[in-house]
Amino acid sequence: MRNLATKQRPSDLATQLAGEVLRVEGAVFFVRADGAVHEARRAASCLLEPVPGDRVLLASIADGSSYVLAVLERAEGAPATLSVEGDCALRLPNGRLSVTTAKGVGVVSAGDVSMVAPAVEVKAAEGTFGLGRLTVVGKELFAEIASAKTTVGALDVVAERVMQQVKRAYRFVEEIDQLRAKRVDYTAEKSMRLHGENTLMTADGLVKLDGEHIHMG
């Protein structure tokens, strides 16, 4: 019978040891194992970044290189960091990704953050946005807000239809409040009040005042 086994090169031989991380210098981990201190790199499959004090699984290769394969033990309550070099992609072709935490979620990026989805839903008791400039582009926008605070330097909204439904609305404009429209229709169930130091009402055609009582002056 033909022997399909291949000879293993000495450089492919590896010895696994359990050790403790003494210190970290850049990408090099100093691990004490089997009575010696080994300089090791983190294996690509070891996503949990080792820190001093961790008990790790160390692989020593016959060619003299060493790798930290996994973190076996860490002090209770110590934080954990999943770290990879370069770009990273998480793919779930046939599943759903859920993130559940007890204390919060933070996203920090030095570059752009983008989100693409057929639908996006955000629910929160309160919301605060601090943006230098915000541009919203949509075919139809509907806002139903219980409590939200938004601070932006400039806000641009481009939409075919915008609908807002609120119980109370307050606007405080320090300089100019300008509305340009083809038709404007304001309806108040009880009262409407316009007041200014100087109030002007002009029309190219008809100006009509209609009511049971009209007081001028």
The amount of helix comes to under 10%
**Spatial extent as radius of gyration:** 33 Å
The largest sheet is:
5 strands, mixed, barrel
Can you write the helix and strand succession as a string? EEEEEEE
Uncertain runs with pLDDT below 50, 5 residues or more? none
End-to-end separation: 116 Å
Structural class: mainly beta
The order of strands across the largest sheet is 1-2-3-5-4
Number of helices: 0
Taken as a percent bin, the fraction of beta residues is 25-35%
How many extended strands?
Answer: 7
Shape: rod-shaped
Mean pLDDT: 85
Give a written overview of the molecule.
By secondary structure, this protein is mainly beta. It has strands at residues 14-25, 28-33, 36-42, 55-61, 66-73, 128-143, 149-164. The chain contains no helices and seven strands. The protein has a five-stranded mixed barrel. A two-stranded parallel ribbon has the order 6-7. The radius of gyration is 33 Å and the shape is rod-shaped. The mean pLDDT is 85.
Keywords:
217 residues; DUF3540; five-stranded mixed barrel; single chain; two-stranded parallel sheet; mainly beta
Task: Give a summary of the structure in a few sentences.
The protein has 217 residues and is mostly beta strands. It is 0% helix and 33% strand. A hairpin with a 2-residue loop joins strand 1 and strand 2.
